[in-house]
Amino acid sequence: MTGPEVRQALATVVAGVVPDSWTVYPGPPEVTSLPAVVIVPRSPYRRAGTFCADIYSLAVTLLVGRATGVAGVDELDVLAVTVTDELIAQTGLVYESTDLGPMIAPGGVEAYGAALNVEYYV
Description:
The chain is of the alpha+beta class. It has one domain (3-96). Helix content is 30%, strand content 43%. It contains 2 helices and 5 strands; from the N terminus they run αβββαββ. It has helices at 3-15, 69-91, and strands spanning 23-25, 36-48, 54-65, 94-105, 109-121. Strands 1-2-3-5-4 form a 5-stranded mixed beta sheet, with helices on one face. Helix 1 packs across helix 2 (69-91). The chain is globular.
């Protein structure tokens, strides 16, 4: 499985979990339409695994507009857990951590974000 295929597989799972009003991007778009989930590589992006072909390090980043304030951060907090649980259940990826706070989305859009740092074993 290639990197784009990994990101698309994760995007498909995430799209089934987040509300219909959210846009899910399997890679960084030029401009992000919020609310959104953007799946991006982390460093090191790809490395050899012991019992598998490759390990991909990714951030599954949930983003809401800064104007949503506390309600937006609360939504991120709940969705981060739901999305993480579903990704683990459906793909078996390894969850590492969540970064939550102000972020700049692809395209320079100011947002609040929850970056789910994960590793996907192929």
